[in-house]
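Justification of resources, computational component.

The compute hours requested in this renewal are based largely on the per-chain cost of generating structure records like the one below. Each record pairs the submitted sequence with a full structure-token output. That output is archived, and it is also reused by downstream analysis tasks.
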Amino acid sequence: MKLLAIDDFITRLHDLIRDLGIEADVLLLGTSRTGQIIEGLKMAHMPRQAVFLGFPHPNEPLGELIMEAIVQEAAIRQSPKNQADWYLVPVWDVDGARINQSWWSHTISIERMIDHWYRPAPSQQVEWTFPLHYQDIRFDHPLPETEAVRRLIDLARPELLVSLHNGVFPGAYALVSPHGARLASKIREVFHTHGLNPLRNCPIPYVETLAEGVFGLPYAHLEIDHLRRLDQQDSPVDYDNGGASFDYVDASCLSLVMELPLFEWIEGTMPVFPGGRRDLVARQITWWESLEQDLINAFADPTLLHSDHPLLSSPRYFYRRRKSDLATIKQRLADAFAHDDPPERADLQNYMATLLTVSTQYSQLLRGGGPDMPMAQCSRLELETLANAHLRTVEAGTIINTGRDFIRLLLDDM
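The structure output for this chain reads:
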């Protein structure tokens, strides 16, 4: 699979709207921190008041394909009898997406992904800096990109908010607001219809499971409460960002986060690991502990610790959150650690996700001016070997069709 560079994607979307004869207005929603235009598209005469957010995280490009499906659906549903508007934000984090585009505008591979990966700390992410007041946590300084979409939400007052995310490894899932729970079984069926295996266990430990591959939204207050439960010493909670778009919208809005995978398993392959699940979990924890120690060593340099290089914000976040992150990981892996049966694919997926997180943190640290750590090449090589042997990219058509069926389900069942 190869996706489009940002400028080519915007051009493609405009051409598609023109070719399909869709009535649409281009909106200037705001400008990014580097002065890039944040563009919106308004489509009148639609059946439901809706906002669709592309690139809520800068390293999640499958929204390009789903945004194309949304435009195609708009061509079918636009009618003078309809009184609502659709608002599309094709590239919300335009600065971050441009940094990442080098790995998806060529044939996508784990190698290119690690080399060009950029995902900043939550406090520097457009999706996680909405105003937030919860208990003693107060966040009142949204990023310019966040403020642009906040104004759009205030204007649109959506009945439906869809945020277009993606994962890397096999396993599709969706996160929905409470009154979307009634759609859980139908969402699961959409995954099965298109050959996407629903994720059994959500990687977010504090959300509700509604069905296989369908979970509750990770509201900010749930994460804060979770962090407080992990801390046995009653110290201040390590939470320095704001809420998400689904925290900000009115409670009556149906919110959905779509998480489709970049990669799927190559059938008939399963690596052989010495030992059982317990040994694989122990290896995961060792990788996390190695990263933790390397970050402690790297950020002992005050120049690096206080650098404003954008590539350092995520490694520095992991450094500052290392205790709570490791506690969360150990809690999530506790069940697998209690069993010594042979690893399953879900265990392998968790292990590869750990290798990706570790490898991309090392990559950003090095590219941001930090030291080249010996463990960086070890984690990268192991991940590349596993991925090349057992993974292939999902077909673009599968993503487009799944996204289209999601949108139809949400619109027709509201």
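Residues 345-367 form the longest helix (23 residues). The two ends are 34 Å apart (CA to CA).
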